[in-house]
Amino acid sequence: xxxxxxxxxxxxxxxxxxxxxxxxxxxxxxxxxxxxxxxxxxxxxxxxxxxxxxxxxxxxxxxxxxxxxxxxxxxxxxxxxxxxxxxxxxxxxxxxxxxxxxxxxxxxxxxxxxxxxxxxxxxxxxxxxxxxxxxxxxxxxxxxxxxxxxxxxxxxxxxxxxxxxxxxxxxxxxxxxxxxxxxxxxxxxxxxxxxxxxxxxxxxxxxxxxxxxxxxxxxxxxxxxxxxxxxxxxxxxxxxxxxxxxxxxxxxxxxxxxxxxxxxxxxxxxxxxxxxxxxxxxxxxxxxxxxxxxxxxxxxxxxxxxxxxxxxxxxxxxxxxxxxxxxxxxxxxxxxxxxxxxxxxxxxxxxxxxxxxxxxxxxxxxxxxxxxxxxxxxxxxxxxxxxxxxxxxxxxxxxxxxxxxx
Length: 406
Known about the structure:
Elements: H1 2-27, H2 36-55, H3 61-75, E1 79-84, E2 88-92, H4 99-109, E3 113-115, E4 131-132, E5 145-153, E6 156-165, H5 170-208, H6 213-229, H7 231-248, E7 255-257, H8 258-276, E8 280-286, E9 294-296, H9 301-311, E10 319-328, E11 331-338, H10 345-353, H11 365-376, E12 383-386, E13 392-399
Parallel strand pairs: 3-4, 8-10
Antiparallel strand pairs: 1-2, 1-6, 3-5, 5-6, 7-9, 10-11, 11-13, 12-13
Helix pairs in contact: 1-2, 1-5, 2-3, 6-7, 6-8, 7-8
């Protein structure tokens, strides 16, 4: 959907720039030797690029204020105003007090409206063209004429773009109309960005909420086994389970520090050690410089759980899990490795490709891999190195820089 919108926007922008170019060339004669076409094309492209980021933030006072000055230069008119359906948001140049009245008339009509202003005796408002607004005769209206076009998002009128100038020509009407369509396209993309961000946030929260039911069952069973034989140990494990659950089920943030994530891993390992006893060996090597780095919430524990699951070769057979966190300049590099039986590389690929939202799958490798790619880009997914009889190593990279929000 977003790709389709971008393609449509590219075509619309090309049309807009052609009309803007004609406007610029019409407004000023070129001195001898000046390349008017090249200069005007560059100017139009530059001004559109300057206005676009503000409009991609949506329609409000701040975005309108930042965009309107570029739109005025692009149109080459005396003044430009942007309104919502209820108020004038921003204007640049000597706008008339009637801008909101004009906007409301345009919003009600749902199409471009022309308000010629005070006409000279020989300039009666009898020219053919778009709809004429009220009070457009020679003795009414402001000194400058106006062209007002509606701004729409997904078929709904959300505001208006008004351009004021000494003369309202057919070329100006066409140009303002096309600029209005381009602005509407930018606002629609802004709405798509918001919808996409909300969908990703919902998906992120759903993915991170998948706690393995097998782990919960095994942890409670292990705690229950100590209730009669070692009540003090059972109480300690129950508190550890409560701490882990409180952390894993919290909803406050999408990110946490690496230090907090490692604390969660430690609580998880206390419960797993109670289950496996001395058969489970674990080592952790962490560079203190990266403890404050922000990482996606609950991104390490699933890797450790996977390592324990595949690192224990069989009943009575010990296994070792190693976690190494290194400082790699602009990134933190994390490795979770086990010395288990390993697996066929094709099996590892299938694990990463499986549906992370599959009921009962828990927070597996596919879940973590998907979240990393959504946050940082495809280059930051999990890397799994494994072979039959050679154990499994899972590597991930986390940028130290500020995370980009979803």
